[in-house]
Amino acid sequence: MPKTIALVEDDEDQRKNYADAIKKNGYIVKEFADKPSALAAFQQELPDLAVLDIILGDEIDGGFDICRVLMGKSENMPIIFLTERIQEIDKISGLRMGAWDYLPKPISLDFLVERIKSLLRINEARSDTTTIQQQSNAIGDLLIDHEVLLVTWKGKRIELSGTEFRMLARLVKTPGAPVKYEELMDTTRHAIVTTNTINTHIRNIRRKFEEMDDQFSAIQSEYGLGYRWAQ
Prior knowledge:
It is built from 9 helices and 12 strands.
């Protein structure tokens, strides 16, 4: 059955271009021009993935509001922010909310479609409870599956965004060895990244582990240099 993609974009030309490209790849696209119409539709049916602009008409944080609602209804739903708001604080806010990706406009239609395909594949694989047991590598109490971005800690699954997963994977690649900020910046795959962004991601990763294990201390700071995996 075709997957359903929700596209919330107030610019009609952009919305139609995105929708046409996504439909050509076999997906069902539900288009929305504003927050009220999107939220009304989501009360009836949730999409498999949502692509959200942030500024929707007069609502400068409309996309953020929609993300909060969707996360409340389905915390594992893949959400992509696609926006002209590329300030670091906006990226951090979007990722903290649980978005899987944060993409700047303008964007290649082919790239957007590939990101949608990739996130849907990952989400489908995550729904298979046997996958992580079959394909994971073990580092101490950590199980990590690079194919579908799955992580468990002491047998408990940890939900990480794509960026968070890549940063964790880089840390555990060389256990005990410091990983410099510059190397962690490269893993984010974003053009402009600061040390504050890295620190925020690391805090989010730690928090998610600590929610499962209040004794978690495997990610340690290397003052002025970066971080290391200490288990």
